[in-house]
Structures are given as structure tokens and as C-alpha cells.
Amino acid sequence: MSKPAFRQLTVHSTHTITPNMQRVVFTGEALNDFPLSQESAYIKLMFDAEGQPLTAMPEENNKTEKPRLRSYTIRDYNPQDQLLTVDFVLHGHGDDQGPAGRWAQVTAPGDIIMIKGPGPKKLVDNSADWFLLVGDMTALSAICCNLEQLPADARGYAIIEVADARDKQSIQTPEGMELIWLVNADLNPQTSLLSNTVKELEWLTGSPAVWSACEFSNMRQLRAYFKTERNVERERLYISSYWKKGFSDEQHKVAKRKDAEAFGAL
């Protein structure tokens, strides 16, 4: 894939889809050459040091500081109408909402923001015997995209942790995939609700493909379980932390890098 491009987009529409999820639809001429079929890929929204959205490239803004980037999954892309859909979690996490979450709450049609992308798609390996998709609300869009592209005869589990029972969404899911919703009002990783639920699942026969993204602490617990206890093949395991409770996005990136280096040295 070519290097992600910088693009200036305009907010086409915005609305709340559940109590803790805001949907923002982007449009703009910069989508003229946007690649097709980018659901589950990500874009990076660009903000200045004060958390305000960048409306042009930093050079044009005469900025010297490095932009703050925030990654979000592409939920849908309609190339015919040039509409790019992104869902934002509004329930505070990391740096207590952060610039992107705050922006999503107040943005209105006509607002402009710079993005970078798209980045690579992260889809589960469809050739596996069965599938396990795991995540909290920050991974909900990506899990939806994964479920919607699975083969019709797919079997397995999708476990999604949300902050409120009303945050459950209607998702196109193969009949053989069991959809399990967990409600954790604080999305508090200390309860280990997400990782404990995964460990209590019946492990199906055959070779699984596992896709998991969640808070840092849960990620570490799940990584150990998948790699050490279940010996999931490396090429059929995607696992990542999307945030770390009590940490800003910048602090989380540092912790994530150090953890990856330490884990790789084991």
C-alpha cells in the first residue's frame, strides 16, 4: 500500500447512535482518490498542541509543533457519494475523552479537519476453522467490519464490552457466530470482565483466527492466554491495545512500545 496521504475533509453530518457513540460522516474533494473497500482500515485525525482540529497542513498554519494524531477505524465508505463514516466513543477514557472525543461531541456539518490515511486494514483471516473477535467499545467499529465480511458459514464468538446496555448495536452476524455483549459501566479493566469471559468460553475444535483490541491491561491478559495457554498461530492472531486507563494517547503509545519490546525479548 502506498504511504497514507494527508487530506482535508468536511463534516457532512453527525448524530448520536447510542448513548456513548457519536457517528460523524465526512466528505470532500480529497476523497476523490480514496481507495475502495477500506472498512476496518484507519484514519488519523489531526489536532494542534491545544487539541484544536487542524484545518490545513501544519506548514500552512505556520505551526512548528508536531500535530497530535488520533487513530479511528473507518466504519463505512461510500465512494459514489464520497461519504466516509467514523464512529467515536464518547465515554471518557485515556486522557478523559481526549481531543478527538471532545471534537466529535461538538462538531457540526461544514466543519473542516485534516486527516492522514487510510492506514492498513486489519481483518481476521477468513480461512480459519472458526473465529474469535474480542474488544471493548473502542474496537466496536472494527469488530462490526470483521463480522460483516465473514463467510456465511463462519462459526465462533464475538465478545464486545460496552459502557451501557443501550450501547449495543444491531450487527450483521453469521448465524454460527455467537454475539456476546458485556456491560461494564466504567469500561474498567481492573474488573477483568472481558478477559475472564474469553477464558470461560468453550474452545472450539480446529484452528481459530483471533482478533482482539481493547484496553492495555486486558490486552496483556488476553495476549498471554492466546499465546501461552491456547498456542494460537502467530499468523492468525491480531491483538492490540487501543487505550490505557489513566493515560493520555501519547503516554499510551510509549507504554505500548515498551511493552512490545519487553514481550518480544521474552
Keywords:
single chain; 266 residues; alpha/beta; 6-stranded antiparallel barrel; 5-stranded parallel beta sheet; 5 helices; 21% helix; globular
Structure notes:
This protein has 266 residues and is α/β, with parallel strands linked by helices. The protein has helices at 98-106, 140-149, 193-199, 216-229, 249-265; strands at 5-18, 21-27, 42-47, 68-78, 83-89, 112-117, 130-136, 155-162, 176-183, 208-215, 237-243. The strands form two sheets. A six-stranded antiparallel barrel has the order 1-2-5-4-3-6. Helix 4 links the parallel strand 10 and strand 11 (237-243). The protein is globular. The relative contact order is 0.15.
Give the secondary structure arrangement, pairings included:
Blueprint: E1 5-18, E2 21-27, E3 42-47, E4 68-78, E5 83-89, H1 98-106, E6 112-117, E7 130-136, H2 140-149, E8 155-162, E9 176-183, H3 193-199, E10 208-215, H4 216-229, E11 237-243, H5 249-265
Parallel strand pairs: 7-8, 7-10, 8-9, 10-11
Antiparallel strand pairs: 1-2, 1-6, 2-5, 3-4, 3-6, 4-5
Helix pairs in contact: 3-4
Q: If you compute it from the alpha carbons, what radius of gyration comes out, rounded to the nearest whole angstrom?
A: 18 Å
Structural shape: globular
Strand element count: 11
Strand content: 25-35%
Number of helices: 5
> What's the overall average pLDDT, rounded?
91
- In this structure, how is the largest beta sheet organized? 6 strands, antiparallel, barrel
Structural class label: alpha/beta
Give the N-terminus to C-terminus distance in angstroms: 31 Å
Poorly predicted residue ranges: none
Percent range for helical residues? 10-25%
Order of helices and strands: EEEEEHEEHEEHEHEH
- Read across the widest sheet, the strand sequence of neighbours is 1-2-5-4-3-6
